[in-house]
Amino acid sequence: MTIFDLLFLVLFLTAAGTLIFSAVAALRGRRARALKLLGRLACGVLAYVGLVYAATALSSLVVLHAGDAECSDDWCIAVNGAQRTAKGATAEYDVKLLIFSRALGRPQRELAATDVYLVDSVWNRYDPVPNATNIPLNTLLQPGERIATGRVFEVPAGAHGLGLRVGRSGSPVGPICLIIGECEAFHKGTVIRIE
After folding, report:
1. Rg (Cα) of the chain, in Å, rounded?
2. Which of 24, 48, 88, 122 is deepest in the core (most CB within 10 A)?
3. 107/185 same-domain check
4. Tens digit of pLDDT for each residue in 117-136?
5. Predicted model pTM
6. pLDDT tens-digit readout, 41-81
7. 168 and 103, same structural domain?
8. Whether 53 and 68 share a structural domain
9. In a shared domain, residues 49 and 125
10. DSSP labels, the chain
11. Distance CA 157, CA 93 (A)
12. Are 36 and 79 contained in the same domain?
């Protein structure tokens, strides 16, 4: 949990309290006070959301390397290596992954993680070769548990600058960002280089 997660929780609880106080004020016949509270709440929400989107607009691509962990809360993934095999017009990459929990007291799962995929230097996407025996990324991990898994990708032989990204399920209406620094609305997020 980061300072921005805590900030969001504090602001969320403050907003909930403001809604309750404005409802109580309206029920007691003080509608002007209730409207004033709701107006301040709306201004605060707009300012916070503006700050979240400004932070994502000013951020840039984060590049990690094999062995570096990409974490979401206490759930983490790292590339432990990649082996390239040429196959004529294509190349096959066997990418070894480690998913682990850095939680100390509770089981952890990344429900939004759908799977990983590769991108090249011009952001073409390459999904893994389907394999029913692959361990899903959203597997429930006990505190401190580590699970080795892998994915195989077929890419054109000329693709270069390959990096691995974690695919995440998103909102059907686009990115909804609520926590500073965790939004990828205006940038490409995090990539783990495998070459």
Report:
1. 22
2. 48
3. yes
4. 999 989 899 999 999 899 99
5. 0.70
6. 999 999 999 998 888 888 877 889 989 999 887 889 999 99
7. yes
8. no
9. no
10. --HHHHHHHHHHHHHHHHHHHHHHHHHTT-HHHHHHHHHHHHHHHHHHHHHHHHHHHH---EEEETTPEEEETTEEEEEEEEEEEEETTEEEEEEEEEEEE--SSS-B--TTEEEEEEE-TT--EEPPPP-TTSPPTT--B-TT-EEEEEEEEEEETT--S-EEEEEE---TTS----STT---SSS--EEEE--
11. 11
12. no
Residues 84 and 168 in one domain: yes
End-to-end CA distance of the chain: 31
Q: Which residue has the higher pLDDT, 184 or 21?
A: 21
- Specify whether 32 is located in the same domain as 72: no
The count of residues in the chain is 195
Higher pLDDT, 73 or 39: 39
What's the domain count of the chain? Answer: 2
The single residue listed with the structure tokens 């990983």 is 116
The residue out of 12, 27, 58 marking a domain boundary is: 58
pLDDT in tens, 76-95: 999 999 999 988 899 999 99
Q: Cα separation of 75 and 73, whole Å?
A: 6
CATH number at residue 87: 2.60.40.1240
- Tell me which residue has tokens 């850095």: 102
My answer on whether 14 and 103 are in the same domain is no
Tokens matching residue 44: 């605060």
Integer CA distances (angstroms), 145 to 91, 105, 139, 141, 173, in order: 33, 11, 11, 6, 35
